[in-house]
Amino acid sequence: MRASTDLDTLTDFFDRYGVALTAGDVPALAGCYALPGLVVADTYSFSFSSLAAVALSFVGAAPDYRERELIAAHALIEDVQPISALLAMVAVEWEFLDSGGARVPGERYRYLLRGTETGPAICTVVRTG
Known about the structure:
- There is one protein chain.
- By secondary structure, this protein is α+β, with helices and mostly antiparallel strands.
- It has a single domain (7-127), classed as Nuclear Transport Factor 2, Chain: A (Roll), CATH 3.10.450.50.
- 29% of the residues lie in helices and 47% in strands.
- The protein is built from 4 helices and 6 strands, in the order H-H-E-E-H-H-E-E-E-E.
- The longest helix has 17 residues, at 7-23.
- The termini are far apart.
- This is SnoaL-like domain-containing protein.
């Protein structure tokens, strides 16, 4: 088992994550995370040690996406840095499509991913812009 730096594998992972995000599929989102995990932003940080805690952190996201009429999310992978045998840091810019088909710029994040038997899993998320 190794951390994936393969763009096809990472693209598939973030495609699944983006679909779950815009669909409000909280169990699928939670399944993308390794435990324990951490989210860091300019004004807050939180950690989680259960899939239920991960799920709770996304409960408000689905209504926000529906209100903004965002129907699809696509991760533009900007950089992949191997950290160790099982860890990789992936820089992503998210772009969204609204219900009218217009591109909506998103935010940038760095994801620390751990290679697992089932594929990448998010350990840490850092909002970078």
